[in-house]
Amino acid sequence: MRTVLTQLSITTQSREQFLDVTRQVAEVVAKSGIQAGVVTLFVPHTTAAVTINENADPSVVSDVLKGLAQIAPLRAPHYRHREGNSDAHVKSTLVGPSLQVIIEGGKLALGTWQGVYFCEFDGPRSRKLYVKVTSG
Question: Please, which residues have CB within 8 angstroms of residue 28's CB and are 6 or more apart in sequence?
Answer without folding.
Answer: 4, 6, 8, 39, 131, 133
